[in-house]
Model the fold of this input.
Amino acid sequence: MRSYTLLSTNLAIFSIYCLPILAQPAQTLQNLTDGKYFYGEVPEANRIATQYMIFQKTGETFIAFEYRSNTSDNSCLKGTISQNTFNIQTIASPPDPGYDRLKWQFSSGKPFDFSKWYQLNISQLPDFGEKKLAECIRAFSTKPDKNP
Done:
């Protein structure tokens, strides 16, 4: 009888302390606070030929620099966030090195499910990350009206 009482007491204590933790909603991109974030398709930073994204979230909007590590495959993205989906409205492809900002190529985007990506520590961001995100922000702020 004593072990049954002890077990019941331990279960009650466990329920009181753990239930609020279990009841919390899952973290989504949408409920992240405003700021800069670094994500990858794998849980390690700087893996060769792996896709990564640094983005700045403001409310339900974002601007991002998306790249594939150790390749020239990269672009800038702009859109809105809904749960774990980036609703990409515009993709900006950078011109060749020595570019003129007005020669960026703009195109329409589509939704991108982020639910299987990993949030990485922003301190793991490669040296070029902040600079490239700033270029994306500039590209979207100077985007000509005649492009999509």
Observations:
- Helices lie at 2-22, 129-141.
- Confidence is low (pLDDT under 50) at residues 4-25.
- The first helix runs from residue 2 to 22.
- The radius of gyration is 21 Å.
